[in-house]
UniProtKB/TrEMBL annotation:
Family indicated by similarity: Belongs to the 5-formyltetrahydrofolate cyclo-ligase family.
NCBIfam families (alphabetical): MTHFS_bact
Enzyme nomenclature, EC number: 6.3.3.2
Cofactor requirement: Mg(2+)
Name recorded for this polypeptide: 5-formyltetrahydrofolate cyclo-ligase
UniProt source species: Thiohalophilus thiocyanatoxydans
Keyword flag Cytoplasm: no
Keyword annotations: ATP-binding, Ligase, Magnesium, Metal-binding, Nucleotide-binding
Length: 202
């Protein structure tokens, strides 16, 4: 097994092994950190995800975002060969259907894919492991990297801001950056938020 593969394996196991109480406590703490953060306040259109495979749950933060009249979005997978994602609005009455990985996503038609991921202000990105420099290992599909690849070429308009969300224990020593990896602007865990200032406005 390659390093990346075995890292995915151990971290995903660890994530799934958390008790319901540990998961809830961490999710609440994460929501408190993010709700108090400037990037969250400045953002109007925010991409969330529904937790899968033991991922840290953004549900509490999403409730708060709705109360604040922010627009919340969820990823939907594009055609199988493209491996790109689109983002669809998500309200409490949005109809969901499981995608090919069993993760619920908003029911939609092709026309709904007109909303560009470029129009988002803030993207909360699930991840499997991260390091001190903001390098990230995801589930291995390359979906986030492909969808937000344009951020690697944007010099002045640095949106959407890309914030990884994870449990603190998902931090590891060092992850090699692949050429297609999109650098994160920060990482939020139940322990707090780390920013990588080279990529964010001050
Ligand atoms: N909550 C959440 N939603 C998300 C993602 C995510 O990481 N988390 N994604 C981020 O990219 C996209 C989905 N990507 C995924 C990629 C792989 C697997 C997965 O479980 N793979 C299985 C084998 C898959 C199969 O062929 O059936 C595995 O590795 O065990 C799941 C989601 C979009 N939505
Ligand atoms: N922008 C891109 N263009 C072409 N191929 C890409 C791009 N981004 C990723 N890939 C391909 O996708 C595969 C998976 O990438 P990687 O292992 O970095 O996924 P990941 O970051 O763990 O997953 P995700 O982004 O879905 O969370 C890689 O083997 C790579 O070939």
């Amino acid at each position: 097994m390659t390093d990346r593969k075995s890292l995915r394996f151990t971290m995903r196991d660890k994530r799934r092994a958390l008790s319901a109480e540990q998961q809830r406590d961490a999710s609440l703490m994460l929501a408190e950190h993010l709700a108090a953060h400037r990037l969250f306040h400045l953002a109007r259109r925010i991409a969330f995800y529904l937790p899968n495979d033991g991922e840290i749950d953004l549900g509490y933060l999403m409730e708060y975002a709705w109360q604040q009249n922010k627009l919340c979005y969820l990823p939907v997978l594009g055609p199988r060969n493209g491996r790109r994602m689109w983002f669809l609005p998500y309200h409490s009455d949005t109809q969901l259907i499981p995608n090919r990985f069993g993760i619920p996503e908003p029911v939609h038609s092709r026309r709904d894919r007109l909303f560009s991921p470029m129009s988002l202000d803030l993207v909360l990105m699930p991840l499997v492991a991260f390091d001190h420099a903001g390098n990230r290992v995801g589930m291995g599909g390359g979906f986030y990297d492909r969808t937000f690849g344009f951020r690697r070429y944007r010099r002045h308009w640095q949106r959407p801001w890309l914030l990884g969300t994870a449990y603190g224990f998902q931090q590891v020593g060092q992850i090699d950056r692949a050429v297609w990896d999109v650098p994160l602007d920060g990482i939020a865990t139940e322990q707090g938020i780390q920013r990588f200032p080279a990529h964010t406005p001050d």
